[in-house]
Amino acid sequence: MRFLLLFSFSFLLSSATFSFSTHGAGILEILIESGSPVHTGFVVTFENKSHVTWRQLKADTPELLIFEDFDLLNGHLMNVTIHDTITSNSVVFPASNKKVVDFDHLPLPYTGLQMKTKCAENWYGYSCHKHCVVKNELRCDKYGNPACAHGYCGSNCHKSGSDCPVFGNCSCKNGGECIRGISESRTRCHCPTGYWGKNCEELEMYRQKRNFTTNFGGNLTVPNKFWNRTDIYQLFEKYGEKSRTSGHQDAQTYQSFGKLAEICVLIWLVATMGYCIIKCCGESKNEKKIVETSGDKKKKKSEEEKKCILIEMNDM
């Protein structure tokens, strides 16, 4: 029994390393600014799971938050709630790759806010389910299909120069890059986030604006200072780069309650198993002592009975 418990305990510990997996490659970024210092809570609910964190926002200082592990395949709605000790406001929107959520007005004390969904590194497509790795001259288009950098061609983009004749003109703007599909003879522009068009000359604009719903507190609003789309993408890039160079100290990842629950269950199982092992070993030792004590008493009683019999025989 003790061996079985020890085996189960060791198996549980060994399997703990492999029990948690990522849920998806979708990422939500929230860029927010407050007009005054405020301790703010953020709750992101998606597929009945919640990501929660708090931040101490400084006055007139943009703050970037990053939430990861979203599976965007089924196009579920995402609910974001921002609250402090006085107010609570929520917004709901469909989540998909490269989507910027626009706001015209914001509830006080917040003066600037934008949200953006995107794919994790090396993941592409509308739902972030296509995996493609950029390496050397190999590139990936927005759908995750392999392509070659400008001037290269071939199945592995290993050819260049005269082996790769170019048909058509590629003049990318706004940081776009000329690429060539593996089986294509023409080059085209691969546009950065926020731009589209043949030469990446068009700025993505979403006509539909989102509004916050007040859960409690006042409903005073102010115009969103993050209204210029060009500035928004630059701000996301600036603070995103800052978070990468600082090791995510300014933009940490917050895991779901589901994972937290799994960890709690694992800790409970380990503690219970350990208690059972200790109790089992302790009881087995006590049983051994009881058996030994009982044997000693029986032996002693038997010897006394023999003495009595010898005395009686002598008397006779």
Automatic annotation (TrEMBL):
Keywords: Developmental protein, Disulfide bond, EGF-like domain, Repeat, Signal. Residues 166-201 form the EGF-like domain. GO terms for cellular component: plasma membrane. Residues 117-157 form the DSL domain. GO terms for molecular function: Notch binding. Disulfide bonds join C119-C128, C148-C157, C172-C189, C191-C200. InterPro entries: DSL (IPR001774), EGF (IPR000742), Lag2 (IPR039178). One of its GO terms (biological process) is Notch signaling pathway. Residues 1-19 form the signal peptide. PANTHER family: DELTA-LIKE PROTEIN (PTHR22669:SF10), DELTA/SERRATE/LAG-2 DOMAIN PROTEIN (PTHR22669). This is Uncharacterized protein. It comes from Caenorhabditis remanei (Caenorhabditis vulgaris).
